[in-house]
């Protein structure tokens, strides 16, 4: 569904993103999806971990400029952008931005109201602050990775969703928006130190309370919510598919037991001494039918049983299709903006930015003509530019102006479609 009427709740917020990988770009995408005017400062030489820009979903709804920070004029151009921005995101190791001349002190000197977001794995200080790392290591060090998986096997790896994006990107965005609220009230910006180890650890807050209360064991596969209980676990079906069971409450468990056919002689839900027997019984029942057959059995019930779907299966599922959770845009499936806003929904206005394709446009819209002049060594010509977007030009100012939003030239609005017929680095 296309709609040009909603620029999003963050319309007018200007963001400078110093190109990186992982959680920083994803955080900037979240802001861009909600209407912020995000300008990504790409370097002339792309990251070796990068993909074809046309498929880099983390760069959708953004515009890109090319700046060589190692060229004499490079840092000055970034400072000019920072002077006109509300937020800045960088994901270098501690001290790198300062050495390049675009650290928080230099940027805040140009724009005292700027919120400077720093996205790292280990944080800006501490014994490991200057070490390389990736999501898996940060989640491990935060005590989170060790919670996941079968107790008799190595911990399971939840892709890079838990560290990079949950413990990193989401906490950075919360910090940026909270600091922006403060800056608008006081005129004073600040630095947001978003470390993946901090965010991942913070996610475990409730579990630490349970641990202190004696209701959680400090080992995986032995607790209420980590597969330790037979009624909260994953079971294989006859055809190799899997079913996720979350029947915790008594009324839901009773429905689950009835539909699964456990029988009156089955061990009780909370008879912990007989849990091995109950788990084996549940597994044996699931092994008698295929995943699809069990889906039919539990359809429409409150037994809290769901099929474990692949990415493509999830995108095609009836519920997510009805909500428009995934959309077709730019020739492939991708998640729609989230969360949903009743008055100012997020939209897909632009395809993923291509490095440098929007330099002239940003130079015009942000009132920075020097940006469009050649900088540093010549870079390879970028691929075909993204669909153009227009915003009102903004003069240079010591404090960030209220930038006009990028006009929606190709939006896909995240609102439910019509109901279907009956028949979403090293740092």
From TrEMBL:
InterPro entries: CoA-transferase_III, CoA-Trfase_fam_III, CoA-Trfase_III_dom3_sf, CoA-Trfase_III_dom_1_sf. PANTHER family: ALPHA-METHYLACYL-COA RACEMASE, SUCCINYL-COA--D-CITRAMALATE COA-TRANSFERASE. Pfam families: CoA_transf_3. Residues 414-427 have a biased composition (Pro residues). This is CaiB/BaiF CoA-transferase family protein. Residues 381-405 have a biased composition (Low complexity). Gene3D superfamilies: 3.30.60.110, Crotonobetainyl-coa:carnitine coa-transferase, domain 1, formyl-coa transferase, domain 3. Residues 331-427 are annotated as: Disordered.
């Amino acid at each position: 569904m296309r709609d040009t009427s909603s620029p999003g709740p963050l319309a007018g917020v200007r963001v400078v993103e110093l190109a990186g990988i992982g959680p920083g770009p994803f955080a900037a995408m979240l802001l861009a999806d909600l209407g912020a005017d995000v300008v990504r400062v790409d370097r002339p030489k792309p990251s070796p971990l990068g993909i074809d820009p046309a498929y880099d979903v983390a760069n959708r709804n953004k515009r890109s400029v090319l700046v060589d920070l190692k060229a004499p004029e490079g840092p000055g151009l970034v400072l000019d952008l920072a002077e006109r921005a509300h937020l800045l995101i960088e994901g270098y190791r501690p001290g790198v931005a300062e050495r390049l001349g675009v650290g928080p002190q230099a940027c805040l000197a140009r724009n005292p109201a700027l919120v400077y977001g720093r996205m790292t794995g280990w944080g800006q200080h501490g014994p490991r602050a200057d070490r390389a790392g990736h999501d898996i290591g940060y989640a491990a060090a935060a005590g989170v990775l060790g919670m996941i998986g079968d107790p008799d096997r190595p911990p399971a790896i939840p892709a890079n969703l838990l560290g990079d994006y949950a413990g990193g990107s989401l906490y950075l965005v919360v910090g940026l928006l909270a600091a922006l609220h403060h800056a608008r009230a006081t005129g004073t910006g600040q630095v947001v130190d978003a470390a993946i180890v901090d965010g991942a650890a913070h996610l475990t807050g409730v579990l630490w309370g349970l641990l202190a209360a004696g209701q959680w064991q400090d080992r995986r596969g032995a607790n209420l919510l980590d597969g330790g209980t037979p009624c909260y676990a994953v079971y294989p079906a006859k055809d190799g598919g899997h079913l996720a069971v979350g029947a915790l409450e008594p009324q839901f468990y009773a429905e689950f037991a009835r539909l699964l056919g456990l029988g009156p002689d089955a061990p009780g839900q909370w008879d912990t001494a007989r849990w091995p027997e109950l788990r084996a019984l549940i597994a044996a029942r699931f092994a008698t039918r295929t995943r699809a057959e069990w889906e039919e059995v539990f359809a429409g019930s409150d037994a809290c049983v769901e099929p474990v779907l692949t990415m493509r299966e999830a995108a095609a599922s009836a519920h997510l299709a009805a909500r428009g959770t995934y959309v077709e845009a730019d020739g492939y499936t991708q998640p729609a903006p989230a969360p949903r806003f009743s008055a100012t929904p997020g939209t897909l206005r632009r395809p993923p930015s291509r490095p440098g394709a929007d330099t002239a446009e940003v130079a015009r819209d942000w009132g920075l003509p020097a940006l469009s002049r050649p900088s540093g060594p010549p870079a390879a010509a970028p691929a075909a530019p993204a669909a153009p977007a227009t915003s009102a030009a903004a003069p240079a100012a010591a404090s960030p102006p209220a930038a006009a939003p990028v006009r929606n030239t190709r939006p896909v609005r995240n609102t439910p479609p019509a109901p279907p017929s009956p028949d979403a680095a090293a740092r």
